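Below is a filled-in request sheet from our internal design queue. Each sheet records the structural input a requester submitted and the sequence that came back. We keep these sheets so that new team members can see what a complete request looks like end to end.

REQUESTER: design group, bay 2
PRIORITY: normal
MODE: inverse folding
CHAIN LENGTH: 297
BACKBONE (tokenized):
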């Protein structure tokens, strides 16, 4: 029996197997048996059993009396060190919770790194972000995602970003980058009927996130979300008095040397937002992004 039934390629398949087991245990709401993990990840049971034995020796997993596995105590120190190493502003969680309270919807901060958006903080209990699911989730950097950071980045990164979409869409997206660079914020819309679809699809991605083996499917669903919620309103449309459907807003956050590193998002996911409400959203997210940008390492 093959150790990896997925047929995927990797620079280090054995490492991927270990990481996938740890990630799956972290994502599940309850401990799991060795067989559950093997079947969920598409690995042979003997391979998973050997990996779990090694992880147990190091304290990375623990085996319960009922033979189910859970994360082990040795990971607590690793997790704490990982949190300390994350390049995020001090007091970030409190700041985005306060932002969410002011705008009445979810808020999140993503780190743009290695061609991906990694969610490093998000609100709990008050709405959600259409493109964000949980802290730690990493999504491919695909236009229009990450536009608020890309708009302030160098031309090479902008071109790689534009190359992720068909040629016929690139001119419009390039214009969008210029608009964000000028205004400091992107306001993204969707057809009113699509707002509910975005919400449902986000829940699908959340469900899939419980299974690391579903990464490919999760990325495809996320791409659908991005396409559905991905048209940027121009300045004239935003200035109009009519109500507009709003999926989310994004703004760049800069590090201590002025490099755009993070994207701050809020997700109203509302089919009708008035002119005054839009102004409120824009002011709040841009002010919060500026406050976060003054952080010094």
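RETURNED SEQUENCE:
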């Amino acid at each position: 029996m093959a150790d990896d039934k997925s047929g995927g390629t990797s620079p280090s398949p054995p490492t991927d197997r270990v990481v996938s087991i740890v990630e799956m245990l972290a994502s599940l709401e309850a401990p799991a048996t060795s067989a559950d993990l093997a079947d969920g990840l598409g690995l042979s049971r003997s391979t998973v059993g050997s990996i779990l034995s090694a992880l147990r020796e190091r304290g990375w997993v623990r085996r319960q009396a009922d033979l189910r596995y859970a994360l082990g105590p040795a990971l607590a120190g690793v997790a704490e060190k990982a949190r300390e190493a994350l390049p995020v502003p001090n007091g970030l969680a409190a700041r985005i919770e306060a932002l969410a309270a002011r705008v009445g919807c979810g808020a999140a901060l993503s780190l743009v790194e290695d061609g991906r958006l990694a969610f490093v903080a998000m609100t709990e209990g008050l709405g959600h972000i259409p493109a964000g699911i949980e802290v730690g989730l990493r999504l491919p950097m695909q236009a229009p995602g990450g536009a608020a950071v890309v708009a302030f980045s160098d031309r090479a990164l902008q071109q790689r970003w534009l190359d992720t979409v068909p040629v016929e869409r690139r001119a419009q997206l390039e214009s969008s980058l210029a608009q964000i660079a000028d205004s400091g914020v992107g306001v993204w819309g969707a057809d009113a009927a699509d707002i509910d679809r975005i919400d449902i699809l986000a829940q699908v991605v959340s469900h899939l996130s419980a299974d690391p083996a579903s990464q490919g499917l999760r990325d495809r669903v996320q791409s659908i979300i991005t396409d559905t919620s991905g048209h940027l309103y121009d300045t004239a449309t935003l200035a109009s008095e009519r109500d507009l459907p709003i999926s989310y807003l994004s703004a760049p956050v800069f590090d201590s040397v002025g490099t755009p590193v993070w994207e701050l998002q809020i997700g109203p996911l509302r089919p009708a937002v008035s002119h005054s409400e839009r102004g409120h959203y824009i002011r709040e997210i841009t002010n919060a992004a500026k406050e976060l940008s003054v952080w010094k390492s």
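SHEET NOTES:
- Residues 88-293 form a domain with the Beta-Lactamase fold (CATH 3.30.450.40).
- Confidence is low (pLDDT under 50) at residues 1-8.
FILED BY: M.R.
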